[in-house]
């Protein structure tokens, strides 16, 4: 409905020393990660080697209730997933975690990211007789791992071997009958962290540290790029065969994707967004009366802009928290009203004032124009737009749904032309130089390919969003 960047996916896993209601713990973990994916979700519980699972389209609280969680039963290991589709349509067969029945035993896998060689690998497995039931990259990873299980002695060795084949972004949680395994790709495009349960009761793995708080777990450390972590009765084992390459965390995790209370690679997301706002104020100052942020990720950057510029910060918008991604698309003539349903300005705050409006990005420009118009209708005298990221001029191949240059307004128009098209009095983007600086103290490098066209690994010329859909037969 809105031409903004959509969320990533989120993964969560738990390993306990004694059987208990692990399904509820995963439920709470996924609830904390709901911002990363709002299309579908799923939980798999391991009860002494028997995998019980439930998946569905919708939000976590729509797919699961107390009765459904109770039916999943108790266990010592469980994994879960919240999904936003960047590869494969939002249909039931693409929900995760994927559960695989195999001669070497069952396996469940949940994946955050996108592979750049998924099509090549999928075709190679199909030529060998492989049958795919979904259209996402995650099933390709499961084939690579199960292939390794035929020759390797353990699931971690199979994954270690598979990582020589799969290329791109992947933060994984994998469950076998006896183990919880986690892994990050060698560049570390997507976050993944290890936590510890109270009273030494076990361990958790999550896409973001904010999920640890939901189950009272303590953050232990980030899983390193290229690292495989194995949790079983022997404790925690680290395999670093694929470590040591140059890291390239997606910088947009700090700009937009992650929750503000998360800490990624040692840098707080909230602080990074405040710094982005400060840099914006330095790069693009303006005489104005008030600074407002577009909820949610624009709020922290707006605070930073206000702090640096001295212009008062105000709450300019109210966001309807009950509008999800299943919101019905209105008729064409009602599109303007649809924006008001999700976002509405506070007239008392902006009326008669010169407003600085902070947002995280501009994709096609249509939504930005509508929001500017909302402020003008509410009585704003001037609207100066500031964006806490550089212009998108290239697609993302690693999991964010920026999939085509022809959909990016910055590929077609200059900054001045974009300003005119969104009806702003002025427009300023954060520079590429400063986007590298927002995550102060982060223990990683950054991928800025969508802003610069310079990717940390080789990428294909193009990556259609639903490149496997034509092969699917329901």
Beta-sheet strand percentage?
A: 15-25%
Terminus-to-terminus distance: 27 Å
Quick one: CATH superfamily of the largest domain?
Aminohydrolase, N-terminal nucleophile (Ntn) domain
Reading off the top of the CATH hierarchy, the class of the largest domain is best stated as Alpha Beta
Which architecture of the largest domain does the CATH hierarchy give at level 2?
4-Layer Sandwich
Largest pleated sheet: 7 strands, antiparallel
Number of E-state strands: 23
The shape is globular
Percent in helix: 25-40%
Characterization of this structure:
With 474 residues, this protein is of the alpha+beta class. It has two domains: 239 residues, Aminohydrolase, N-terminal nucleophile (Ntn) domain (Glutamine Phosphoribosylpyrophosphate, subunit 1, domain 1); 190 residues, Rossmann fold, CATH 3.40.50. It has 16 helices and 23 strands. The strands form six sheets. Strands 3-2-4-1-10-9-11 form a seven-stranded antiparallel beta sheet. It has a six-stranded antiparallel beta sheet with strand order 5-6-7-8-12-13, covered by helices on one side. β20, α13 and β21 form a beta-alpha-beta unit. α4 crosses α5 and α5 crosses α6. The C terminus is likely disordered.
């Amino acid at each position: 409905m809105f031409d903004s960047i959509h969320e990533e996916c989120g993964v969560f896993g738990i390993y306990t020393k004694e059987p208990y209601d692990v399904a509820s713990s995963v439920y709470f973990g996924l609830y904390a990660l709901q911002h990363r994916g709002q299309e579908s979700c799923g939980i798999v519980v391991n009860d002494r080697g028997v995998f019980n699972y439930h998946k569905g389209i919708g939000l976590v609280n729509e797919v699961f209730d107390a009765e459904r969680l109770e039916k999943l039963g108790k266990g010592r290991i469980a994994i879960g997933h919240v999904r936003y589709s960047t590869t494969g349509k939002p249909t039931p067969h693409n929900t995760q975690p994927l559960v695989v029945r195999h001669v070497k035993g069952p396996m469940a896998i949940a994946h955050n990211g996108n592979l750049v060689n998924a099509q090549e690998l999928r075709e190679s497995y199909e030529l060998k007789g492989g049958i795919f039931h979904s259209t996402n990259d995650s099933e390709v990873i499961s084939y690579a791992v199960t292939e390794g299980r035929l020759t390797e002695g353990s699931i971690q060795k199979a994954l270690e071997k598979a990582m020589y084949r799969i290329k791109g972004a992947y933060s994984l949680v994998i469950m076998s009958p006896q183990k919880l395994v986690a892994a990050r790709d060698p560049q570390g495009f997507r976050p993944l962290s290890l936590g510890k349960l109270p009273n030494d009761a076990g361990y958790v793995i999550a896409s973001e540290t904010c999920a640890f708080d939901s189950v009272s777990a303590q953050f232990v450390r980030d899983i390193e790029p290229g690292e495989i972590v194995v949790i079983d009765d022997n404790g925690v084992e680290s395999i670093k065969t694929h470590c040591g390459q140059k890291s390239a965390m997606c910088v947009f995790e700090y700009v937009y994707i992650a929750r503000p209370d998360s800490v990624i690679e040692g840098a707080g997301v909230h602080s990074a967004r405040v710094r982005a706002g400060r840099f914006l104020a330095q790069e693009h100052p303006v005489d104005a009366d008030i600074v407002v942020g577009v909820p949610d990720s624009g709020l922290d950057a707006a605070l930073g802009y206000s702090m640096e510029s001295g212009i008062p910060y105000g709450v300019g918008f109210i966001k309807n928290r009950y509008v999800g991604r299943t919101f019905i698309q209105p008729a064409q003539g009602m599109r303007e009203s649809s924006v008001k349903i999700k976002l509405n300005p506070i007239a008392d705050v902006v009326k008669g004032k010169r407003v600085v409006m902070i947002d995280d990005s501009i994709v096609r420009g249509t939504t930005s124009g509508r929001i500017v118009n909302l402020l003008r209708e509410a009585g704003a005298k001037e609207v100066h737009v500031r964006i806490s990221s550089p212009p998108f001029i290239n697609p993302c191949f690693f999991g964010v749904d920026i999939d085509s240059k022809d959909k990016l307004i910055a590929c077609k128009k200059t900054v001045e032309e974009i300003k005119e098209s969104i009806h702003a009095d002025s427009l300023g983007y954060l520079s590429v130089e400063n986007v590298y600086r927002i995550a102060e103290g982060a223990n990683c490098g950054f991928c800025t390919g969508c802003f610069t066209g310079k990717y940390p690994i080789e990428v294909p010329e193009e990556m259609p969003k639903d490149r496997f859909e034509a092969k699917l037969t329901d």
